[in-house]
Amino acid sequence: MHDLPQMLKIYAHARELMARNGNPTQWGNTFPHEEVIRDDIANQRTMLLVDTQNGHERILAQFALCPGEDPTYKHIDGAWLDDDAYVTIHRIAASGLVKHAARDCIAWALKHYGNVRADTHPNNRAMQHVLETNGFARCGLIQLIDRTTDTTRIAYQRHEW
């Protein structure tokens, strides 16, 4: 919980970056809400990529790693690679301190879990590039069930057989 203030700053940085790169609506000005981040921490879904510089730990990137079936992924316009157990990466954001931090988070998840799903906004070209260059297959479109507008997302999956 002591990392929460820095995590909030990283998410604010990510929202600004997305807006500057043609994706102002995916997270808007407020997503993810602080309550969501607190819930991720309380339920041990928060993953931090960190390093140490001059004796101080820095957060390079963060994401929520969600085990079990994601209700949002129950219906897909397309098809998942399989119906095996998977984890989902949500709310990934890099601090901007180093290059390839999101890629490193994804590599960690694949190494530890093998079957990973994720989704991103159709305007989020940067995350689409990160997922696709890391071997994720574009599986189709899903609709977010926790929002009422701008709900379409591109769904991805990679399964390390």
What does this structure look like?
Strand 1 (46-53) and strand 2 form a beta hairpin. The chain has 161 residues and is α+β, with helices and mostly antiparallel strands. It has helices at residues 4-20, 34-42, 101-113, 125-133, and strands spanning 46-53, 56-67, 77-78, 87-94, 115-120, 137-143, 152-159. The longest helix is centred in the first third of the chain and has 17 residues, at 4-20. The model has no long low-confidence stretch (mean pLDDT 96). The protein is 30% helix and 32% strand. The protein is built from four helices and seven strands, in the order H-H-E-E-E-E-H-E-H-E-E. It has a seven-stranded mixed sheet.
In short:
The protein is an alpha+beta fold and 161 residues long. The protein has 4 helices and 7 strands. The protein is 30% helix and 32% strand.
